[in-house]
Automatic annotation (TrEMBL):
Residues 36-155 form the C-type lectin domain. The keyword Disulfide bond applies. Keywords: Disulfide bond, Signal. Residues 1-23 form the signal peptide. CDD domains: CLECT. The lineage of its organism: Eukaryota, Metazoa, Spiralia, Lophotrochozoa, Mollusca. This is C-type lectin domain-containing protein. Gene3D superfamilies: Mannose-Binding Protein A, subunit A. The keyword Signal applies.
Length: 167
């Protein structure tokens, strides 16, 4: 690498770092919400709720119960729970209450496409219409009786979460 190329490389790396820092502003999420990608997440553990209460709570705070769209987002949630809340299950926003076996994300009404069901799940069928991330299987997915009381995860868009173009 010539001296000029090397200088360009260093400047490029520094510039990338600058963009990365500015794409994650500290005010993107409210206090106690976790910023990841373009979203903010709140892991509610102090208010054990049935699934419908969890849906309502998230809407009341201007969010939605979490909808998991990608493997990358799913891994973020699993890793966060494994490091911070490893002994309890958490409600997420999918249900097959409308048609047994047809799982929908409640916030967007879209069918669940990407999946990460735990071994032998979904298992119980009728009467088990709501989804948890289950601690028993490293926070992979489980169909659960909607009346159980668990913590839950709310999600909303981050403020200024998109990349900022400099220059
Ligand atoms: Ca079911
Ligand atoms: Ca199950």
């Amino acid at each position: 690498m010539s001296k000029n190329n090397w200088t360009g490389f260093v400047v490029c790396v520094l510039f990338s770092g600058l963009i990365h820092v500015q794409a994650q502003p500290s005010n993107a999420c409210p206090p106690y919400w976790i910023h990841h990608g373009l979203s903010c997440y709140s892991f509610i553990t102090g208010l054990l709720s049935d699934w419908m209460e969890a849906v309502t709570f998230c809407r009341d705070v201007g969010a939605e119960i979490v909808e998991i769209q990608t493997n990358e987002e799913n891994n973020f949630l699993k890793n966060y729970l494994l490091h911070n809340h490893k002994n309890a299950d958490f409600w997420v926003g999918a249900t097959d209450a409308f048609e047994e076996g047809h799982w929908l994300w409640i916030s967007s009404q879209q069918p669940v496409k990407f999946t990460d069901w735990a071994p032998n799940e979904p298992y119980q069928g009728v009467g088990f219409e709501c989804m948890t991330l289950t601690a028993r299987h490293g926070f992979r997915w489980n169909d659960e009786n909607c009346n159980h009381k668990w913590g839950f995860i709310c999600k909303k868009e981050a403020e200024n979460g998109g990349p900022i173009i400099i220059g």
